[in-house]
Design goal:
It is built from 18 helices and 22 strands. By secondary structure, the protein is of the alpha+beta class. A hairpin with a 2-residue loop joins strand 21 and strand 22. The model has no long low-confidence stretch (mean pLDDT about 95).
Amino acid sequence: MKMPVPDGGIIARRREIVEALRAIVPGEGVIVDENELRAYECDGLTAYRQLPMVAVLPSTVEQVSRILKTCKAMGVKVVPRGAGTSLSGGALPLADGVLLGMGKFKRIIEIDYANRCAVVQPGVTNLGISNAVAHEGFYYAPDPSSQIACTIGGNIAENSGGVHCLKYGLTTNNVLGLEMVLMDGTVLRLGGRHLDAGGYDLMGIVTGSEGLLGVVTEVTVRILKKPATARAVLLGFPTSEQGGDCVAAIIAAGIIPGGMEMMDRPAIHAAEAFVHAGYPLDVEALLIVELDGPAAEVDHLIERVEGIARDKGACYARVSTSEEERLAFWAGRKAAFPAVGRISPDYYCMDGTIPRKALPLVLQRMQEMSERCGLRVANVFHAGDGNLHPLILYDANKPGELEAAEAFGNDILRLCVEVGGVLTGEHGVGVEKRDLMTDQFDEADLQQQQRLKCAFDPDGLLNPGKVFPTLHRCAELGRLHVHQGELRFPDIPRF
């Protein structure tokens, strides 16, 4: 994995850049000390590390605008950063760039129950929104496993999902409005408190754009009323393939659970030892299926789900009988990533999405890959929408194991594309999947995406080195092709 070669001319002007930033953010808001910059050298993808040239921590929209405008005028690259929980290297700093930390934007501005929305700053944590509205019986639906730490700004950058995204959607389905600052300092407002807006879906473009288009400074999110009843059922299977078949059968039956998650044996054992959620330890695959809505409907759907599971070979079934038990079921799943960290010195968390019908085949092929490369894999994923999160277990202290884990992960992602899926479901492309983009998109696709990038950031200063395997200059993308002295379609008027 290679990042853009640092610009020696920019690094030589570091003192000048620091002074310009200190004129905007006084006091301790500009960080230059090497030891203090260590806190920003990587995000959740810790295999890649790089100290930023300087970090700046603004606290107002005006400061963000002035910082970006100044950096554009000086030709300095900027990497936006939220809580740093990205698992794709999306917040990896640049040696010749400014790291723009948005951690001080952590205020809930307004809660509007009448319009069922909340206006928050991007540094508010995902779980913080739900906690702020829980006393009125509301919650914020997207709930990634890192929801206690990840921020809403980062959720927008990666279009995060979570265990309940199957029924209630990802971040893009739950954001009503945005305020964002462009690289030239322009402050834009998109959407609002209304259900939808006319014109181009610019919020849809910004959500999932991984910090390449602008810096989000305010978000209006949709909040939902908590369902009258929610119950979860644990379903155990003798094989992972049978569990995958059950997932597809439940959806095919027209049942859309609030959440449907799957774990294989290594993940089950790690989570149970860590959380003591009451998981069965004699099964190869475990499904957690949550049904919500009116009590009568939930009871009916649970019976149907249990019947489908029996038909698909389930050997274990247990339905939650209290809210505490339901939350315990989910606690194990939410803690699966840290739990796996107890059984391996290191792990590499992947993120690809496949059609649900391909789940049994993909699980089988991943097991074959695991045996060939000699690395174990624990599977934890959002089964309902086909979003896989294989955890490749390795030891970074053993020469070659990191490279083997990366190669294994690349093969998994290529398999996702092969069966009709995509490279990422919610973690983003970042640097992790950047060089695999050509496996999913051809050159015309990538150039069209880069033209969109150019419309927002013509100088390519926002988060360069991420997402695109080859980043053309905007002037190159707009050039006209001349062949033997003639333009294509010479009869078309040009202005």
